[in-house]
Structures are given as structure tokens and as C-alpha cells.
Amino acid sequence: MRLPRQFLLAALLLHVPIMALYAQAPEEVTELIPLKKVRASTAAQLLSAEHRSIPCGPHIEVDSKRNALIVHGTADQIEHVKILTRNLEREPEKKDAKANPGHPIFQYHAVPSGNAEAFVKHLQQSYKDDSLRISVSGPNRIFVWGPPKVQLEIAQQATKNGCGR
Question: I need a surface site. Which of 57, 65, 96, 147 has the fewest CB within 10 A?
Fold first, then answer.
């Protein structure tokens, strides 16, 4: 198991034996996640951008021959990546494509005052559209997979009064 640099620096500063860190560090695993509808390189770019802000986030590689992602990380990190890939793989219903014209795009939105979870709940109640995917990406950021028109509306709500209310 490879310890992250932050653990090693903390051990040196706090005079903690490095072997003690190995006992406390979460076990890392590697898992192959096959994709059916999304290209692995595209999914890896989106997911890497999602986890870039996490110092010890999962490491994501692309297996282009099998159109799969190879994910190295803790079990929780891998489960999070699986949930995100499932959301990317889901197809919107055809009736929803007519209601919201335009090709869906992936976009981050900053949410002031650290209430991203509340803002996501508000958006999910406002937009009951199966072609729209909204997830929390930290206390001050959400990511949205949806048509450009909806992206613009969400961006305006996020900047208006801090939470769209």
C-alpha cells in the first residue's frame, strides 16, 4: 500500500512512526469499471475534474480497449466513482429531450455560502426532469449534466441570493 504524501509529512512533523500510519491508513483497492454508453476517456476527464479538489482522491486510468475505467482508491472512493459513472451512463427519456432542447453538457456551478446540498435538493424539486443529473461536489460546488438552457437557469439561481431563493 502506498501512503499519500500528506500522511508522510504529518508523520515527520508529529514524530509518529511511519509504520503506525500503515495500520491506520484506509486500504486501497483497484477496480475495473466497464462503460457501455460513454467513452472511457470522456468519463475519466469528467471524474478526474470532480476529484481534483480532494487531496487523496482516487486515481483514475483509462482502458480504451475495453472501454473501462481502472480506479485505484479506498472502497468509499470507488463506490463514489461507480455512482457517478452510473449517472453518466443513464439515458434520458425521449419526452424529456423534447421538453429541454439542446445537447446535454456537463458543467460545474459555484454555490456561495457552503450550502450545496440544500441547493441540490431545491433544484431537484424544481426540475423533475429525468434527463437532468445534479450532484453535490463539495460544500461550495455542484455539477450538473443537462441542456444548456437549464445550465444557464441554474447558474443564474446559484448567483442570485447565494442559493437561488
Answer: 65
How many structural domains comprise the chain?
Answer: 2
Burial class (CB in 10 A: 0-12, 13-18, 19+), 144: buried
Lowest-confidence region among 41-50, 56-65, 86-95, 115-124: 86-95
* Contacts of residue 67, Cβ cutoff 8 Å, sequence gap at least 6: 34, 35, 36, 39, 40
Return the CATH number at 33. Answer: 3.30.1370.120
Alpha helices in the chain (DSSP H): 5-14, 18-24, 40-51, 75-89, 94-99, 116-126, 148-159
| Domain that includes residue 148, residue range | 94-162
